[in-house]
Specification:
The chain has 208 residues and is an alpha+beta fold. It folds into two domains: 88 residues, Ribosomal protein S4/S9, N-terminal domain (Ribosomal Protein S4 Delta 41, Chain A, domain 1); 86 residues, Structural Genomics Hypothetical 15.5 Kd Protein In mrcA-pckA Intergenic Region, Chain A, CATH 3.10.290.10. 39% of the residues lie in helices and 8% in strands. It contains nine helices and five strands; from the N terminus they run H-H-H-H-H-H-H-E-E-E-H-E-E-H. Strand 1 and strand 2 form a beta hairpin. The two termini are 28 Å apart. The mean pLDDT is 82.
Length: 208
Amino acid sequence: MGRHTGPVCRLCRREGTKLFLKGTRCDTPKCAVDRREGMPGMHQFRRGKASEYAIRLREKQKVKRFYGIFERQFRKYFYEANRKAGNTGDALMSLLERRLDNVVTRLGFAVSRPQARQVIRHGHILVNGKKLDIPSYLVKPGDQIAIKDREHSRKLIATNVGEGTPPVPDWLDRISSEPPEGRVSRMPSTQDIGLPVTPQLIVELLSR
């Protein structure tokens, strides 16, 4: 799986919003979006008004960077959402929100999606009692997500689950057990997305 290896704070500055690519650091005064105005690059203040295409492109890039996926995988999600009945934009965001790495992050088992992918890849996560090391796995209502019951896994997650853990969205339930567990109670909707985005603009861009 490919990954971004450059400075991630530049991505947040380019999109003009916090993408929480560094987890809890993004809520501190060290956050680059709060400390530095404007987009990265030496010509940031010379750019004119954004075109209609540019506005739609930025929405797509924002979502891709938030969930940590690249163009080919994002297109696959769009084609799958386009085949579903109902609103394509809502279906697209629901698919992205159901990714296992996103669910692990939203449950508070990891502070960021990059960390969640590493936790999953290293075999610390169980889905319905079985080890699953595929970050792109799409969860379903009723799925149980748990931490492997071994000392190393419990210690790894214990540093993330505590008082400062963000609230869990309505479509997920976090069970206070040892080791901690979570459950998917329903399918996520557009209102459950933790990112200010207009999915219809993405649909208009990719439907051209």
